[in-house]
Design brief:
Layout lengths: L4 H13 L2 H7 L4 H15 L4 E4 L2 E4 L1 H25 L7 E7 L1 H6 L1 H11 L3 E7 L2 H10 L4 E5 L8 E15 L9 E2 L1 H4 L4 E4 L4 H12 L6 E5 L2 H9 L5 E4 H7 L5 E6 L5 E8 L7 H11 L3
Parallel strand pairs: 3-4, 3-5, 7-11, 8-9
Antiparallel strand pairs: 1-2, 5-12, 6-10, 6-11, 6-12
Helix pairs in contact: 1-2, 1-4, 2-3, 6-12
Length: about 300
Amino acid sequence: MRFDLTDLRLFCDVADAGSITAGAERSALALAAASTRIRGMEEALGAALLIRSRQGVTPTEAGRTLLKHARAMLAQSAQLREDLSAFAGGFTGEVRLLANTNALTEFLPEALSAFLAAHPQVSVDLEERLSDEIVGLVAEGAADVGIVAGTVEVGALATYPFRSDRFVVVTPADHALAGRGSVRFAEVLDYDLVGLDRAASLQRFLAGKAAREGRPLRLRVQLRSFDAVCRMVECGVGVGVVPATTAARAAMTMRLGRVELADDWSARELTIVVRADAELRPYARALVESLRTPA
């Protein structure tokens, strides 16, 4: 039974994505090649590693055991490359960073650009996830660093403050809500909404809040960026929920109403999470220190 590092990295990517297709994309492999590798691993082991269904794939008990050891071996491989890179004039490597929608779109572009400019030999694999998913993946060792909403339970993970923001409602300038000082999310559900793509972590979060109210989201259109949401709102398609930083920036060039959300969850303290400071490799630790620096 021989699994190379490409096999192990592919299996981790497939397990994390819940899909062989998505896992192949993460590993930069063709789907046919990825499927062949997974089947080869199962044949070499003599047992199934994945449960396949229409919804995707999940690891079997054997797959979960492989996943645990694969992550440990990949971490050791990364540590080896990093230790040896010291003899080549500085550390090199990749750090995997997970972030929720708010952090990814509003704060990370500037924060990461500063870090990457200071560390040209380091690359960052950035992926958007829900905050609770991020906590689980960081705890499992599937990611080096996460940025989550401060309200999520982080267990034994170490935490550091990142940024503060809050969600607001943006409306057309002449909308019935535009003159309000604040509004509860339950009231917003009475109106047509402009939102993000269904895969966006914020959109899934808002859908969950609507479900708790026993109401559907009346989504008229779904887009890929907060700026596009604001532009569509300005044109009268509906109202949107966006970070206050986005709304303030958009209001400089668009005719929009901005209304505070009265719900407690609208205030967002964003938090950096890691397994433990001592476990971080130097370039991951350098990223955390850079992210902790105020904008």
